[in-house]
Design a protein that fits this description.
By secondary structure, the protein is of the alpha/beta class. The protein folds into two domains: about 5-165, NAD(P)-binding Rossmann-like Domain (Rossmann fold); about 175-265, ProC C-terminal domain-like (ProC C-terminal domain-like fold), CATH 1.10.3730.10. It contains twelve helices and eight strands. The protein has helices at about 10-25, 40-50, 55-60, 75-80, 100-105, 140-150, 165-170, 175-190, 195-215, 220-225, 235-245, 245-265, and strands spanning about 5-10, 30-35, 50, 65, 90-95, 115, 125-135, 155. It has an eight-stranded mixed β-sheet with strand order 3-2-1-4-5-6-7-8, with helices on both faces. Helix 7 (about 165-170) packs across helix 12 (about 245-265) and helix 8 crosses helix 9. It binds NADP nicotinamide-adenine-dinucleotide phosphate. The site of NADP nicotinamide-adenine-dinucleotide phosphate has 25 residues, from helix 1 and helix 4. One of its GO terms (cellular component) is cytoplasm. It catalyses: L-proline + NADP(+) = (S)-1-pyrroline-5-carboxylate + NADPH + 2 H(+); L-proline + NAD(+) = (S)-1-pyrroline-5-carboxylate + NADH + 2 H(+). It is found in: Cytoplasm. It comes from Actinophytocola oryzae. It is an enzyme of class 1 (oxidoreductase).
Amino acid sequence: MTDSIAVLGAGKIGEALLSGLLTGGRRVEELMFTERHPERAAELTARYGVAAVDVATAAKEAAVLIVAVKPQDIEPLLDELAPHATADTLVVSLCAGLPTSLYERSLDDGVPVVRVMPNTPMVVGEAMSAISPGRHATNDHLAVVEELLSVVGMVVRVPESQQDAVTALSGSGPAYFFYLVEAMIDAGILLGLPRAVSEKLIIQSAVGAATMLAKTGEHPVILREAVTSPAGTTIMAIRELEKHGVRAALLDAIEAARDRSQELGKAHDPS
Ligand SMILES: NC(=O)c1ccc[n+]([C@@H]2O[C@H](COP(=O)([O-])OP(=O)(O)OC[C@H]3O[C@@H](n4cnc5c(N)ncnc54)[C@H](OP(=O)(O)O)[C@@H]3O)[C@@H](O)[C@H]2O)c1
């Protein structure tokens, strides 16, 4: 296990991580966090017992610094961090779209940086996180990050060049599922079901389908064919989905998200 861990910026994602690390067995004394607003800091300390510190203290005392501020807040944070972070400190960035080169330009030469694209199901311990090493991060650093993040979900390693695709798939992915669920609940209303019943039917169907995919390891085509009987109800619905180009819409949608992620990343990477 790693030594102490500091979360820099304990908002939604930072708090989810703190809470997950505690549930996963980390001791309160091993953790610390930084926050801009004293009221928010006091609230988190009261809730979790974890100490709020300033950035300089976090950088001096923690072996791992997890950066979880909004991407637009990164520059002032790096200015605060730069005088204190050394090659012995592992910097883990959860900030969407920020390349490791941005950190490497601001911090001392040799400071290892690992970039992570998590997603919001981290708040329920079901995140999908993709991690990529910067120039000075080794396999050991990646293993540390894998161990840390595995308490709040699953982790895969990808080259940093694939992070825009990851952002479009799993980063934004939960939003696509929420959108589909919302549309299907509306369909229930259209068919005359009460909203509460429609919500229950669709949400549990989504949970059930996701659990089958995760637990059986079967290909989605096999699972779908198993409920698509000849001249039955499901194939009538599938015909409409194909007629309306839903598959093509998803391909286009995810490609557009990837393009936007590339565009946003360029703002932080002049190379
Ligand atoms: N939420 C998601 O769906 C999601 C998914 C994947 C990745 N991420 C990434 O996770 C990061 C955090 O997102 P979030 O949704 O958790 O944002 P958030 O709720 O706004 O949390 C960021 C926190 O950091 C604090 N902060 C900002 N600058 C600071 C500084 N210099 N020192 C200490 N604290 C500072 C902010 O305080 P203030 O309130 O004063 O601004 C806020 O409490 C982002 O970079 C985002 O790209 C988020």
